[in-house]
UniProtKB/TrEMBL annotation, chains A, B:
GO terms for biological process: nucleoside phosphate metabolic process; ribose phosphate metabolic process. The keyword Hydrolase applies. This is NUDIX hydrolase. Residues 40-171 form the Nudix hydrolase domain. It comes from the Bacteria. GO terms for cellular component: cytosol. Belongs to the Nudix hydrolase family. Coiled coil: none annotated. GO terms for molecular function: pyrophosphatase activity.
Amino acid sequence: MSKFEEKTLSTQPVLNGRVIQVRVDEVLLPNGAVSKRELVKHPGAVAVIAVTEEGKLILVEQYRKAMEKLLVEIPAGKLEPGEAPEATAVRELEEETGYGCDEMKLIASFYTSPGFADELVYLYEAVGLRKLEQKADLDEDEFVELLEVTLEEAQELVQAQRIHDAKTLLAIQHLQLKNR
Amino acid sequence: MSKFEEKTLSTQPVLNGRVIQVRVDEVLLPNGAVSKRELVKHPGAVAVIAVTEEGKLILVEQYRKAMEKLLVEIPAGKLEPGEAPEATAVRELEEETGYGCDEMKLIASFYTSPGFADELVYLYEAVGLRKLEQKADLDEDEFVELLEVTLEEAQELVQAQRIHDAKTLLAIQHLQLKNR
């Protein structure tokens, strides 16, 4: 048994959704007390750092219902069942931006909200970026607008809070570290 | 109306939890189609970059039920109702680490999982860190172990995937950029 492990006493499923599953577990704490954990299961996702030959970072602006606002983010998307993260990264880059690449290089992986969710994001860097002759189709419920910005412009978008999510900040810091 | 806005047609609440609220919204998409969005509302959180006089980064190891494993993270915690993020940062640092500070400097804020959750994390850097004479009490359902590591050791923890969450990677990148 792992240090501080919380043994599950009972599980109450509350949502079996298209994207997430939500449940409430009753757990036995290390001190013998009983508590509840509200947990979100997520299939995992990928995000892609894609920089053009001209040194521009490719971003997508989309409406995010959870915040009821537009956010500018690096291209990203959920894993489909059985899909390897690298294949998801290639697919999402093609669908959202119309760019392909020679190679997807894994930069990092990270849990986004370990306090309540198991979502794991694989962050890739697209190597050998090239424009596709034909743009792949977006999912039918996705609407995004493409932006190509310098690193300086990306930092201005952070200041303006139009870029305001963890994976895109990680991507920008990665490029800052790489460029030094 | 904002570009790409998704108008809510109906809302189905599925969980009114202690930490999160979950609901499923039926939305009208920009193309006139109808879709569903599974949404998690979260009170928001803070995370604290705390470096000792000896240049060691303060980390906490804790069991994370969503992943069923131990993770090493920077000190963090949820906002209490009506609590200013800066006060939460001071409180969480004291409770989890036994350190106080002269000033909490806001480094960044970010949504952790904009695809399904509205959790916003405020990332602070503790300035003028000092050990408290008496350690504040942890929440009754919190069990953490303190680590103090060099930046190099932190990067080894990333390689070993014992550090494996977005906010802690952002903190490490921030320190790498600052130290150059």
